[in-house]
Specification:
Order of helices and strands: HHHEHEEHEEEEEHEEEHH
Helix content: 40-55%
Structural class: alpha+beta
Largest sheet: 8 strands, mixed
Radius of gyration: 23 Å
Number of strands: 11
Strand order of the largest sheet: 2-3-1-5-4-9-10-11
CATH class of the largest domain: Alpha Beta
Oligomer: single chain
Strand content: 15-25%
Number of helices: 8
Number of domains: 2
Distance between the termini: 25 Å
């Protein structure tokens, strides 16, 4: 896949569009359909970016010409052009925040209920619903790859794939521990409870990387699918669980039609996790050499969702707050995501 870093860098993006267009007319372009689809997706994203920039540049030139004329009768038209330009520049500024190497990739997201039994398991399902609602509102395709139901309610864990524009770039803001404070619906005394769930996010780069996995390092288990793992879940032993023994990474898939398809999907998720693990190790090593603080890991909550005694969602990294907690739980995550992207840009500046 291509890299979109470098802020606006329009000249570089125009050049990249030309390179990709040459690839698409090659006779063997569609021989590898998965790779071809990735190229077409990248080409669409780049064309859209360049088109917005060129249109904004053209409108700016016209607006300057209107100003130069000094005709008061043109003030209304000029005001309209300024409004359109402001929206377009805002869109470009937002896209410029996606400077990470893998920000344009799709994403794999895993949710794990923390300690606390039913409370935490219900919270994990609430987070799953929140992400699915966000995806539906942003034309992002979601597929539940695997899911373990809770003992009484909710889920113990799930793994989902998200496919869409800049998905990893947006969803990486959700990586970490999420904290919920509320009056428990499972407590007969109506006491306030605090629940935790861990969210993992990594770029879905299985099709674009070469990782050698020794079969001796794998333990493969077959089991029957349970719970809602997708519309094609089978009730025979088609579900797959793969344990990578050296790292103790466990992945599973149960939503495909056959054992072979579930195996292929699970191996893809495993490759992405191993790749992301190595990438984070390298990032931590570089940070240590620079003398920067290294993230403490999963132990620190990144965000709190308070439903009692008041209602608020606060991101502890950016201090961004939302008073309408229910809207966030219904998928209104864009403000939190954008605040995180700006925070990351400021941190690396």
């Amino acid at each position: 896949m291509i890299i979109y870093g470098g802020g606006f860098d329009i000249a570089g993006k125009v050049e990249k569009v030309a390179e990709l267009e040459k690839l698409t007319v090659a006779p063997d372009f569609w021989d590898d359909s998965s790779k071809a689809q990735g190229v077409m997706r990248d080409l669409t994203i780049l064309r859209d970016y360049v088109s917005v920039w060129q249109d904004a540049s053209h409108r700016l030139s016209e607006a300057l010409e209107l100003v130069a004329l000094g005709d008061e009768d043109l003030e209304e038209e000029l005001s309209r052009e300024v409004e359109i330009l402001t929206r377009k520049v805002g869109r470009l500024e937002f896209k410029a925040l996606f400077a990470g190497k893998y920000d344009t990739e799709d994403a794999i997201v895993a949710i794990h209920a923390g300690a606390g039994g039913t409370e935490a398991q219900d919270w994990a399902m609430m987070l799953q619903r929140m992400f699915i609602r966000w995806a539906d509102a942003n034309e992002v395709k979601v597929d539940i790859l695997s899911q373990t139901p809770g003992d009484e309610a909710g889920i113990k864990s799930c793994t989902m794939s998200f496919v869409g524009e800049f998905v990893y770039g947006r969803m990486k803001s959700e990586r970490g521990v999420h904290r919920l404070v509320r009056i428990s619906p499972y407590d007969s005394s109506s006491r306030r409870h605090t629940s935790f769930a861990k969210v993992e996010v990594w770029p879905d780069v299985a099709q674009d990387i070469e990782i050698e996995i020794d079969e001796k390092d794998l333990r493969i288990d077959r089991f029957r699918a349970s719970g809602a793992g997708g519309q094609h879940v089978q009730k025979n032993e088609t579900a797959i669980r793969i344990t990578h023994i050296p790292t103790n990474i466990v992945v599973s898939c149960q939503n495909q039609r056959s054992l072979t398809q579930n195996m292929q999907t699970a191996m893809g998720v495993l490759k992405s996790q191993l790749f992301d693990l190595e990438r984070r190790k390298q990032d931590e090593a570089i940070s240590a050499l620079k003398g920067e603080d290294v993230d403490a890991g999963w132990g620190n909550q990144i965000r709190s969702y308070v439903l009692h005694p008041y209602k608020m969602v606060k991101d502890h990294r950016t201090n961004f707050e939302v008073g309408n907690a229910q809207s966030v739980l219904d998928g209104a995550l864009d403000g939190l995501m954008e605040a995180f992207l700006k925070y990351r840009v400021g941190k690396s500046a």
